[in-house]
Amino acid sequence: MKLPLHSFAGTALLLLFLLLSSCAGIRPGSSAAARSLYTTFMVEDRGLQYFIKPLRFTSKDGEELLMDITFRYRDELAGDANYKFSYTGKTLTKELHEVRFENPLGTWTAGEVDFMFVEREGKNFQSRQETLLPLAATKQLFSSPDWSIRIIGPEGFSQTFLPRSNTRRAITRLNHHIFELF
Fold first, then answer.
1. Closest Cα partner for 181 from 78, 76, 81?
2. First CA to last CA across the chain, in angstroms?
3. Global pTM value
């Protein structure tokens, strides 16, 4: 007895669907939500490279600082994390003397800040800069969501930024899914 061709095609499609869906990875909901905050990839024999997507901080004047972080981790807390940040404010900022990170556990100062570019954004300026902080300090920084970031420039320029409520939640999730594992 011959089966109709459409029956065979339907069965083949069903089997293909089941095969492909069984090979797909399944992630718990909380893990998927945390993964929206960062990406990782293997770097040959150097371990994993992490990219933490931009975190948003604001000053009491309503100015904004967006910061993303890139680092590599293998078996130990060695090396530096690269912090790139965009400061948007009324002051044209090409030079910063230091960036100071604080939480209840300590204060960490990055003294060498490299200028990347500046551009106009409406009536404000957006300045992109980068600095390094040891990976061990980065782990301690993420141990608490109560951050303050202070940028200090020439001629008395200084601005302090605090995390927004959704940034505080993101810091807590990043600590749980990345830094607590180190």
1. 76
2. 63
3. 0.80
